[in-house]
Design a protein that fits this description.
This protein is an alpha/beta fold and 223 residues long. The protein contains 8 helices and 8 strands, in the order E-H-E-H-H-H-E-H-E-H-E-E-E-H-E-H. The strands form 2 sheets. A 5-stranded parallel beta sheet has the order 2-3-1-4-8, with helices on both faces. Strand 5 and strand 6 form a beta hairpin. Helix 4 packs parallel to helix 5. The structure holds adenosine monophosphate. Adenosine monophosphate binds next to helix 2 and helix 3.
């Protein structure tokens, strides 16, 4: 089964994914994290990598054909290693074309998929993203107030890094705007029965409970 975590940047997808990994043993595939890892491990002079790095730096989106080919290849790999597990897909689809490719992939593999649509007031997102850091040890994202010493709530490490695209207000604005532009067309593409709306405006634990209630039902029905 593929569970799509859909929501704007800063809506808590990464944090909730950590919790879902712990509670249900899902395999988490974040396209943004995957691309960042690919770029840091790859040859910087590769023209494809250079282009992808430039797009990510500006807060734009990688063209459908390129991202889809990378994502489907990695999904195949994950699926062959973990055939019975739930794959939690975070950051894809981000266009109607990508949504169509995902549906085709699931149909060809006989896989169920559901979408958790995390809704958050867009006005609060800039602030959340400016205060967000990632743990250098386990990569989980979390927020830190400006004078606080960061401690990762998932593994306890106090080594953190700040993503380049979380550092610049203009880039954050671009990412939120791009989500606003595409979210309706992506959600409209899916059958309503597959989309579950989660109110993501509350504290992390309340949102966790809302997501758990939905995931518990999938697990009861499908496994
Ligand atoms: P994220 O970590 O999900 O915020 O993604 C970081 C960046 O990776 C985005 O701003 C895009 O440049 C790129 N990216 C990630 N997923 C996709 C996607 N599905 N389609 C196009 N670009 C993507």
């Amino acid at each position: 089964m593929i569970l799509v975590l859909f929501g704007p940047p800063g809506s808590g997808k990464g944090t909730q994914a950590e919790f879902l990994k712990e509670k249900y043993g899902v395999v988490h595939f974040s396209t943004g994290a995957y691309l960042r890892e690919l770029l840091s491990s790859g040859k910087s002079e590769d023209p494809l990598f250079e282009r992808i790095a430039g797009i990510m730096k500006s807060g734009g989106l990688i063209p459908d054909e390129e991202i889809t080919s990378l994502v489907l290849r990695h999904l195949e790999e994950l699926d062959s290693k973990n055939p019975v597990k739930i794959i939690l897909l975070d950051g894809y689809p981000r266009s109607r074309g990508q949504a169509g490719s995902l549906v085709d992939f699931c149909e060809s593999k006989g896989k169920e998929f559901f979408v958790l649509d995390i809704r958050v007031d867009l006005a609060a997102l800039k602030e959340r993203l400016m205060s967000r850091v990632n743990c250098s040890s386990c990569n989980a994202p979390f927020s830190v107030a400006s004078k606080e010493t960061p401690v990762c709530p998932f593994c306890g490490s106090n080594e953190v890094f700040k993503r380049n695209d979380d550092n610049d207000e203009a880039v954050i604005g671009e990412r939120i705007a791009s989500y606003e532009n595409i979210s309706l067309e992506v959600l409209n593409f899916f059958d309503n029965k597959r989309v579950f709306i989660i109110d993501g405006n509350s504290d992390i634990n309340t949102v966790k409970d809302r997501i758990s209630k939905v995931v518990d039902v999938f697990i009861k029905e499908k496994f």
